[in-house]
Amino acid sequence: MRVPDAIFAHPRLAAVYDTFDGDRGDLDAYLDIVADLGAHRILDFGCGTGSLTARLPAGCDVTGYDPAAASLDIARTKSGTVDWRDTLTGLSGFDLVLMTGNVAQVFLTDDDWAHTLHTIHDLLRPGGHLVFETRRPEYRAWDEWAQRRPETRHVPGIGPVEQHFTLTEVHLPLVSFRYRYTFPDGETLTSDSTLRFRDRYDLDAGLTAAGFRITDVRQAPDRPAQQRVFLCEKP
Q: A single GO molecular function, which one (predicted)?
């Protein structure tokens, strides 16, 4: 997996991430998918601070993977039963691999995306599923992002923290942006990110080339015009 952005990798930024991420009611749809598929052994690929991972059903064998150690430190405070990992070494046989949030869009090159899909294919048992979400480029989410204004939120144990968002470049299919955080002691930290907005043709082609069968493509229930949720099976 690619080197994580500072917003996930820097301990001070990881500590404020959940406060600014806000309510994650959108994750309920994934709990429904887990139930519908009858998945028991589940990998949350790019789990971040574990907002979804820690909510997966009790009794499931759950692994949370992320290369950002600072985010995993936060995740570990949410569940002592999840197997939190910063490596995929030795893993296999999953019923379900999940990628939520921006995870599927952080792989910027065709080679990186293909490698990720093949890796996940190898992690699944035959008949297992990959489920992920991705933004629809035709919605042009970056136009809304450009209107975002600075906001200050109270972070427990830290105090008031200001977040400032800047859209830095749109060179499709890549969109880049920067977060700047100002802490109560005056320290300012920044994190730069780039996402790739793949169209439906590229997504279908990449999944097929990696050996997946697309079983369903749904609209995200909280943002139906903006995002797709792919359900893919390893035959």
A: methyltransferase activity
Closest CA to 232 of 40, 110, 112, 98: 98
CB-based contact 150:164 (threshold 8 Å): yes
Is the Cα torsion angle 129, 132, 138, 139 positive or negative in sign? Answer: positive
Report which DSSP code applies to 54: G
For residue range 219-230, what is the model confidence (pLDDT) as tens digits? 987 787 899 999
Domain positions in the chain are 6-136+198-233, 139-195
Helix or strand run (H / E) with residue 174: strand 174-182
Q: Any idea which fold 6-136+198-233 has?
A: Rossmann fold (3.40.50)
pLDDT in tens, 146-200: 999 999 999 999 999 999 999 999 999 999 999 999 999 999 999 999 999 999 9
